[in-house]
């Protein structure tokens, strides 16, 4: 068989592990041909690719980013995008496409699959918000990076008796905020799923100082928002792809909290550091399993599907189920943490 693999959307630790695993399973075990498209869907739309053999994936397991490059280009953005993709798949004699990506990429994968192309998706995002899989690779790495940062920030916050508001990634969901905040013992967490009341947040942090504590750490998911009418709030502008470019919840909260509490407050934005660098062992293993199972799905002729983790098993689930809703954090999980507003 001949298959094409691509990585699309925001990069994520573990992408290279999937690419390597696809090549190992397909080329070594099945004797298939694998090509890699450059920069996500752009490579497919412009027929920009290279052959992937064992040499091409040697030494990439532990490397962050993606050796194939990524972009946010989606076939549906171009008037003839779907037709072009179909034409190139036919010209290249491909039996399958394996797109590795998040919500936007999997929506595009579904569109192409509905148009008749043989697609097996692999979910990825540090945000962990893709429905139909219990976990996405990249999440564990991002939580580890954020937790280490929070641990470090505690000592400087304490030295200066400050409130530090630490902004972590999470556009629509608070998975990274919840897990890193719990792991590091944050004093308050604000998340997109639960619009917060600034007075309640200030009271929570204020109580800590009243109890004699010298510092406080607030974790804010970048997509967290105040309850309507409770605080002046700049939502930020969208980028050229219509993607949120956040206005800095940490910066805005630091001003509000400093005013209300009379304590020095500083914003810390962890940003893309959460996405860069080497994946954890957990993410490498999950990514490797997804790659192996994607190739098996291709050989079984099960298209229009995505690999997913259910409990400890890797299963195949329809792409449609993966893109219908986002996987938000259940209320009970927030309640367990005890510090989520
Ligand atoms: O979806 C992954 C993610 O890292 C989000 O957490 C974040 O909001 C977004 O991508 C950032 O995207 P970009 O790299 O385009 O700024």
Automatic annotation (TrEMBL):
Residues carrying the site annotation Important for substrate specificity: 104
Residue numbers binding substrate: 125-127, 162, 169-171, 222, 266, 272-275
Catalysed reactions, semicolon-separated: beta-D-fructose 6-phosphate + ATP = beta-D-fructose 1,6-bisphosphate + ADP + H(+)
Main localization, broad class: cytoplasm
Residues bound to ATP: 10, 72-73, 102-105
InterPro entries the record matches: ATP_PFK (IPR022953), ATP_PFK_prok-type (IPR012003), Phosphofructokinase_CS (IPR015912), Phosphofructokinase_dom (IPR000023), Phosphofructokinase_III (IPR012829), PKF_sf (IPR035966)
A family per Pfam: PFK
UniProtKB keywords: ATP-binding, Cytoplasm, Glycolysis, Kinase, Magnesium, Metal-binding, Nucleotide-binding, Transferase
Binding site for Mg(2+): 103
Active site: 127 (proton acceptor)
Domain (Phosphofructokinase): residue spans on this chain: 2-298
Pathway terms, separated by semicolons: Carbohydrate degradation; glycolysis; D-glyceraldehyde 3-phosphate and glycerone phosphate from D-glucose: step 3/4
Family as reported in the entry's similarity comment: Belongs to the phosphofructokinase type A (PFKA) family. Mixed-substrate PFK group III subfamily.
Function: Catalyzes the phosphorylation of D-fructose 6-phosphate to fructose 1,6-bisphosphate by ATP, the first committing step of glycolysis.
Subunit structure, as described in the record: Homodimer or homotetramer.
UniProt-recorded name of the protein: ATP-dependent 6-phosphofructokinase
Lineage: Bacteria, Bacillati, Actinomycetota, Actinomycetes, Kitasatosporales
